[in-house]
């Protein structure tokens, strides 16, 4: 295990990370989707951060044990399921399936646990009972509220000042005003005809959104977690309220060791969000012909604590970056067509050793993705140079370079290791035709991509007075 440092939102500092029980694995809980519609690529940035964290921890030698919840009951789900005359299960099933399909499309690894809120009601009741016994709960109109004034540490994550707060002001919705400190609902009595509810010993009703996460952490881990993640918009009040519930109910336990918050995806400087209407789903972009690998790379290649502005230029940059790396890899695969990857990491080539070490050092420094990319591009540049003098690179080293790319790909997962077969003449002709058309349409990204693809196969295009010709290098 390599020592890793994270910026903990709780302390505001970069700290050395140590899991409570490395043998059990690093326990991580991430706030997941509310399944009432397709996720947009802003949501996907938060979910891919979880994938990046998972792959980084594994690469650095840690075992992982990770959870993302499915919020399958909340105000919006109740509203939309009633409107579509479906039960909560019927309504949420296709959106839950769509969420998993999207994760698969962008190559996010499957986590160990995906609990659903509707399957965690007993744990919610347990927490409420504990909170009641400690005097932290009051009832109003048959709903139960958490009294934040009675909880000493309220505000420790968000550093929000509760001193000017009026007593007894309440939130009983799942949506709320930012910066506004109020008591929040734990258990909501049914308000709307046909609303889903559970008949329990604390009354008939359904959980408030914040309670769901505290309960699912308990359901999966029977205690706290090493790391809790979510988008920055969840820091207050959602995560603050999770702390209040879990630490209020179980003061003897550590709820969360390290809080990691990922920044937003923006469009023209504004947060991408459903309510603003400035969003794209993954499906929108794939339908426009954008390769999911490009979207994956775009969303993970900016540091998780930096805002990222989405634009078509950024997509193109991302496609170009992948192409640069892939072209170098293709050159290696071309000369070692029968080589089967072994998943090696104990390199013997001195340069590979250095690159691997730099890569790991960058990752272990609060997942510094920019530095890992700098290492990749440095190695691409140098390997390309070596390959230009092909006789000087021994086969054994070329194989190690392939393994090095394989190693990088354990994190980024955007490269293809299929060794390219030779193109036949008619395929070359049709690619050149397509390139001409792309140039005519000013689609230079496509025309450059075709030129690079041909070059990687040793085909050079020449402009002669009789028109375009191609030849093998
Ligand atoms: P939701 O389904 O709305 O509960 O959101 C799921 C996750 O997406 C949460 O972790 C949010 O913080 C995150 N999220 C929402 N909008 C954005 C955005 N524009 N950029 C990055 N993450 C976001
Ligand atoms: Zn949550």
Automatic annotation (TrEMBL):
What name does UniProt use for this protein? Cysteine--tRNA ligase
Extract the Gene3D superfamilies matched here.
Answer: Cysteine-tRNA ligase, C-terminal anti-codon recognition domain, HUPs
The UniProt family comment states: Belongs to the class-I aminoacyl-tRNA synthetase family.
Q: Which UniProt keywords apply?
A: Aminoacyl-tRNA synthetase, ATP-binding, Cytoplasm, Ligase, Metal-binding, Nucleotide-binding, Protein biosynthesis, Zinc
CDD domains reported in the protein's UniProt record:
CysRS_core
Question: Any binding details for the cofactor?
Answer: Binds 1 zinc ion per subunit.
Q: Is Secreted set as a keyword in this record?
A: no
Q: Which residues bind ATP?
A: 274
Q: Where is the Cysteinyl-tRNA synthetase class Ia DALR domain?
A: 358-423
Which residues make up the binding site for Zn(2+)?
Answer: 31, 213, 238, 242
- Localization of this protein: Cytoplasm
Name the reaction it catalyses: tRNA(Cys) + L-cysteine + ATP = L-cysteinyl-tRNA(Cys) + AMP + diphosphate
**Top-level division of the source organism's lineage:** Bacteria
Which EC main class describes this enzyme?
A: ligase
- Please give the InterPro entries that the UniProt record associates with this protein: Cys-tRNA-ligase (IPR015803), Cys-tRNA-synt_Ia_DALR (IPR015273), Cys-tRNA/MSH_ligase (IPR024909), CysS_C (IPR056411), Rossmann-like_a/b/a_fold (IPR014729), tRNA-synt_1_cat_dom (IPR032678), tRNAsynth_Ia_anticodon-bd (IPR009080)
**Where is this protein primarily located?**
cytoplasm
Pfam families linked to this entry: CysS_C (PF23493), DALR_2 (PF09190), tRNA-synt_1e (PF01406)
Provide the GO MF annotations for this entry.
Answer: ATP binding; cysteine-tRNA ligase activity; zinc ion binding
- What is the required cofactor set for this protein? Zn(2+)
Gene Ontology annotations for the cellular component aspect, listed alphabetically = cytosol
Sequence motif 'HIGH' region, residues: 33-43
Q: Where is this motif: 'KMSKS' region?
A: 271-275
């Amino acid at each position: 295990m390599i020592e890793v440092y994270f910026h903990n939102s709780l302390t505001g500092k970069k700290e050395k990370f140590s899991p409570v029980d490395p043998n059990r694995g690093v326990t991580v809980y991430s706030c997941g989707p509310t399944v009432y519609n397709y996720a947009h690529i802003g949501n996907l940035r938060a979910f891919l951060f979880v994938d990046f964290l998972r792959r980084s921890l594994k690469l650095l030698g840690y075992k992982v044990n990770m959870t993302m919840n499915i919020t399958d009951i909340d105000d919006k789900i109740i509203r939309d399921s009633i409107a579509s005359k479906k039960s909560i299960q019927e309504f949420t099933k296709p959106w839950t399936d769509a969420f998993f399909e999207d994760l698969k499309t962008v190559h996010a690894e499957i986590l160990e646990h995906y609990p659903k809120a509707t399957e965690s009601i007993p744990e919610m009741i347990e927490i409420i009972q504990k909170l009641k016994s400690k005097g932290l709960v009051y009832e109003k109109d048959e709903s139960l509220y958490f009294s934040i004034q009675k909880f000493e540490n309220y505000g420790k994550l968000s550093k929000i000042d509760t001193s000017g707060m009026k007593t007894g002001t309440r939130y009983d919705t799942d949506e709320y005003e930012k910066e506004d400190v109020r008591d929040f609902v734990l258990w909501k009595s049914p308000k709307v005809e046909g609303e889903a509810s559970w008949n329990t010993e604390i009354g008939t009703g359904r959980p408030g959104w914040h309670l769901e996460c505290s309960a699912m952490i308990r359901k999966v881990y029977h205690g706290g977690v090493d790391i809790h993640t979510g988008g920055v918009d969840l820091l207050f009040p959602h995560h603050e309220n999770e702390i209040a519930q879990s630490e209020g109910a179980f003061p003897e336990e550590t709820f969360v060791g390290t809080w990691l918050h990922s920044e937003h995806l923006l469009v023209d400087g504004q947060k991408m969000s459903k309510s603003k209407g400035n969003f794209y789903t993954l499906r929108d972009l794939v339908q426009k012909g954008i390769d999911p690998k490009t979207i994956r790379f775009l969303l993970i290649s900016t540091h998780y604590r930096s805002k990222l502005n989405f634009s078509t230029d950024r997509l193109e940059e991302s496609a170009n970056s992948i192409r640069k790396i892939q072209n170098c890899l293709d050159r290696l695969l071309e000369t070692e067509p029968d080589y089967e990857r072994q998943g090696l990491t104990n390199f013997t080539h001195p340069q590979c050793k250095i690159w691997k070490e730099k890569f790991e050092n960058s990752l272990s420094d609060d997942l510094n993705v920019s530095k890992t990319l700098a290492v990749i591009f440095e190695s691409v540049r140098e390997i390309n140079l070596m390959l230009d003098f092909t006789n000087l690179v021994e086969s054994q080293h070329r194989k190690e370079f392939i393994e090095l790319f394989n190693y990088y790909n354990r994190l980024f997962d955007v490269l293809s290791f299929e060794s390219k077969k030779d193109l036949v003449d008619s395929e070359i002709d049709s690619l050149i035709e397509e390139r001409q058309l792309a140039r005519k349409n000013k689609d230079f990204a496509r025309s450059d991509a075709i030129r690079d693809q041909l070059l990687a196969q040793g085909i050079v295009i020449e402009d002669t007075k009789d028109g375009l010709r191609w030849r093998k290098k």
